[in-house]
Specification:
A: about 120 residues; mainly beta; B: about 120 residues; 4-stranded antiparallel β-sheet
Chain lengths: ~120, ~120
């Protein structure tokens, strides 16, 4: 089946630094990728939708300058958390929609970000 | 507003007994419906989906779900629970599924606990 990978799976960084998270669709092309944030014991909150070759669309309340999203190719999207603060600590999950079968959307394993 | 409701935060079942995790939705158009399972510190694992056709959908690990259009429900069921089924379960809906721009809406999640 289709696989979405995320790297790194776990990262610890110091407050004020930036962290980049990669999301790759391994065996399919994804024109659309989604980034979610999940707080402990809560549901997934959609942060932004990225389309290959164009600017990401951010959900209301999500700071676009803080969470930079780049969807440079049909298999790669990146989320950069800039000037990270402890409140940015969370579980970040990406998802990719299959270009060939648009009803199929696959989720990555998630990245645990801890900002100290 | 479009929404997905999982009315139970937690469901407790004895091993070997049948289980049901409830989900109702309020969306426009003909939605796609999904169930996902999440284990601690892991991403989402796909269980099953309803796109069209037979209202009873069978999925992974012996789970099934019944789509009920009149009651706008998509309850998850399993005839005989296993301790290993203990996890967090999310119901999700993609409204207006024919549109490539439509986004998945997640329920709040239900924690399933199976006691030996």
């Amino acid at each position: 089946g289709a696989v979405v990978s995320q790297h790194p799976s776990w990262v610890i960084c110091k407050s004020g630094t930036s962290v980049k998270i990669e999301c790759r669709s391994l065996d399919f092309q994804a024109t659309t990728m989604f980034w979610y944030r999940q707080f402990p014991k809560q549901s997934l909150m959609l942060m932004a939708t990225s389309n290959e070759g164009s600017k990401a669309t951010y959900e209301q309340g999500v700071e676009k300058d803080k969470f930079l999203i780049n969807h440079a190719s049909l298999t790669l999207s990146t989320l950069t958390v800039t000037s990270a603060h402890p409140e940015d600590s969370s579980f970040y999950i990406c998802s990719a929609r299959d270009r060939a079968y648009s009803y199929e959307q696959y989720f990555g394993p998630g990245t645990r970000l801890t900002v100290t | 507003a479009q929404s997905v409701a999982q009315p139970e935060d937690q469901v407790n079942v004895a091993e070997g007994n049948p289980l049901t995790v409830k989900c109702t939705y309020s969306v426009s158009g003909n939605p796609y419906l999904f169930w996902y399972v999440q284990y601690p510190n892991r991403g989402l694992q796909f269980l099953l989906k309803y796109i069209t056709g037979d209202n009873l959908v069978k999925g992974s690990y012996g789970f099934e779900a019944e789509f009920n259009k009149s009651q706008t429900s998509f309850h998850l069921k399993k005839p005989s629970a296993l301790v290993s089924d203990s996890a967090l379960y999310f119901c999700a809906v993609r409204p207006q599924a024919y549109s490539s721009a439509s986004k998945i809406i997640f329920g709040s999640g239900t924690r399933l606990s199976i006691r030996p």
